[in-house]
Amino acid sequence: METASFNGLLKAILYILAFYYIFKFLARLFLPVIAKKVVEKASEQFQQQQQTNTHSTTSEKPKAKKIVGEYIDFEEIK
Description:
single chain
């Protein structure tokens, strides 16, 4: 069984800090590119959805309403 040592603790802290700064650096490089692609894809999907909505609404014919009768307002009698 190994005992915890001061050198081991320093190595662990050093690795954690190194990982943190490397991750932060890579995020600053790649995050704007990834975000730009996500926004472009979302805008393309939005445009496609708008085009399909305009085509489907213009091609549908309005349904004729059935005229059942005249509406009569009534009051309940007790």
